[in-house]
Write a structure and sequence with these properties.
Strand content: 35-45%
Largest sheet: 6 strands, antiparallel
Number of domains: 4
Helix content: under 10%
CATH class of the largest domain: Mainly Beta
Length: about 500
Amino acid sequence: MTAEFRTQEATMRKAALVLVTLTAACSGAPESSINKIEPKMSVAPTALDFGVVVQGETVEQTLQIVNTGRVALDITEIELADNDDGSFTITPTTATVGSELDESNNLTIGVTFTPAAIADYSRTLIIHSNDGESPDLEVPIAASGRAVPVPDIDVGDGIVDFGSLIPGDTSQAFLDLRNVGEAPLLVTNIAFSGSGAFTLVSPPAAAAGFETAPGGSNPMVFEYAPTGIDGDTTQLTLFTNDPDEPEVQVELRGNGGSDFEYPEAVIDCPTGVEPLQTVTLSGATSVDPMGGGLSYLWSLTDRPSSSATALSVLTGPTTDLFADVAGEYEVQLRVTNDVGLTSAPAICRFDSVPANQLHVELYWDAADADLDLHLVERGYTFYQSPGDCNWCNEAPDWGVAGVSTDDPLLALDVDESVGYGPENIVIPVPANGDYDVMVHYFSDHGAGELTATAVIWLDGRKVKEIDVRLEHNEVWNAGYIRWPEKVFVESREEPTPAARRSCSTAP
């Protein structure tokens, strides 16, 4: 074959290839190498999965809409199919109509889910646009609602049987209180009715409430001390946050139980008690079903660790209690009728909360020692009047002249020269500024080294309780209170020897 013939053959093949290409283009056959100039919509993620959500809670996920085409993408509408119950919402709502995305631009929308019931909430999000291939792009949504987790109390058969016991002896038994629910179980209060031969040993201060974790248990320990040969029965009522069983009855039974009509102790329990206030507790409305007379026995079963208070009397229809410090107090009353039947205890528990916005307490652990609390206005020094409120400057004039609500006051009725304290300094409405909390170990009377504790209450809240070891005549700068921020800043300074032992007006 000559070179001229080869050249002619190659030319004819090229011409044929061009003819085939032109023919395919004219006939509409696809050609992958030719890109269409049009918008193209993509989404990320391609599906939304909210999983399981608790009733009433709201969960949000985001969806990005991207234009991967070469001309503007017009979004005409975004809708949620079958969303008549409003379980899903789209934010921002302006994204539903009129959004225009240039090449490589994107739009982020939020989709929130709030289930109202225990159900499947599978839906479809539809995005309408001018995308020629996917004008109605669908995004699947998977979600389901579940019930709100709640506690569920279980006390078994609800009976604690102590068996037989000789009068004068004591025995203990326990109730296995279980939480078979999915949320913490709180016993908010307890009450007894029936025989007074049973006592709750633990958990302590149960009347104030105790918590049992989901799937957990709390043993409640009781003691039985019969006073006669006849049987005893007490009904224990547990008040809980279980929505199905807010009150649960448990029977305490000893020596076979009894069906006696026991007297019932009742306390007129106070509310709104403030520190340094004396409250009167009355059991006068206690009753005896037999119509006879009653004798009374009071007991102070719980008080703040810094308190040194006591009941004024232990017998009689009424008793007084001086709330010497802020915190929780518990008083119990048992009544006995003329035939010797004693009631289960009535329980009165109350909080003593400072009404003054600034309230500082001091107590210590040595009976013979004398400690003094100082509240020093910033700009003054230890024992410098009028800026140091203490035993020799009990009620200085601070803040606005002639206004008493911004002045400090050392509570003289509990200013202790010996004993464990407490001492209290209060300001009803402090002026803005910083106030140093200081403690002076004034006299030891042979007590030696001891522990001093300062308790800071601000706006009715206990914000700090701190302590330190002190030796005679040492001064402890515990920290400062900043107002109106209502914060206490601990100084962490070591105690130092006192430079003064009485008030001075010198700078």
